[in-house]
Design goal:
mainly alpha, 8 helices, about 75% helix
């Protein structure tokens, strides 16, 4: 392989990473309908460069959400693997809060298909079933209230997302407080 082709591949990989980073930030700020030229400009590249890597908005969004979906899926898998399901759930909520602060709005891909992706509603349903299983296992712990529901967890997640979006500077402390209040409310 010639030196020029190695340099070209390295430049292409760097440009793709720049575009994905710019897309994550832009979508978090302005939503999935942000103009693609804005993403290209933020990356310091031309629109043509963006289209060389991502032929459509759907392709770009699929790549942006793919990493976030995997992060969320791993988060749920780790919680499911915990011997103490309630401790696993609390840890998942803590990591979820950190993810939401790093990539606002993207962690919803755990339970909803992301626009423009190949992820199906069956994937989202499977994630919800796993989360329901985690809640059911947690509820069987003697120190956990027997009226803990999936809706309770949904309220905590919605609170985390809201706090992270409204006050990013104070979000770490506020998200930790939301999770601590949930822990106290759900234990006897």
């Amino acid at each position: 392989m010639s030196r020029s082709s190695r340099v070209g591949r390295a430049d292409a990989a760097r440009n793709r990473d720049l575009l994905l980073t710019a897309a994550r930030v832009s979508v978090a700020e302005a939503g999935a309908d942000v103009p693609l030229r804005v993403i290209a400009q933020r990356a310091g590249l031309s629109s043509a460069s963006l289209y060389r890597h991502f032929p459509s908005r759907a392709h770009l969004l699929a790549s942006v959400y793919e990493a976030e979906t995997e992060r969320c899926r791993q988060l749920l898998d780790d919680a499911l693997a915990a011997e103490d399901a309630f401790a696993g759930l609390l840890q998942a909520l803590r990591v979820f809060a950190a993810l939401e602060q790093d990539s606002p709005g993207f962690t919803v891909t755990l339970v909803e298909p992301a626009p423009g992706t190949t992820r199906t509603s069956a994937d989202a349903s499977a994630a919800m079933a796993d989360l329901r299983d985690l809640v059911d296992r947690a509820r069987r712990r003697p120190e956990v209230r027997n009226d803990l529901t999936l809706d309770d967890v949904g309220l905590v997640i919605a609170s985390i997302r809201t706090v992270a979006a409204l006050d990013p500077v104070r979000a770490p402390a506020r998200c930790a407080r939301v999770i601590e209040l949930f822990r106290r409310a759900m234990t006897t």
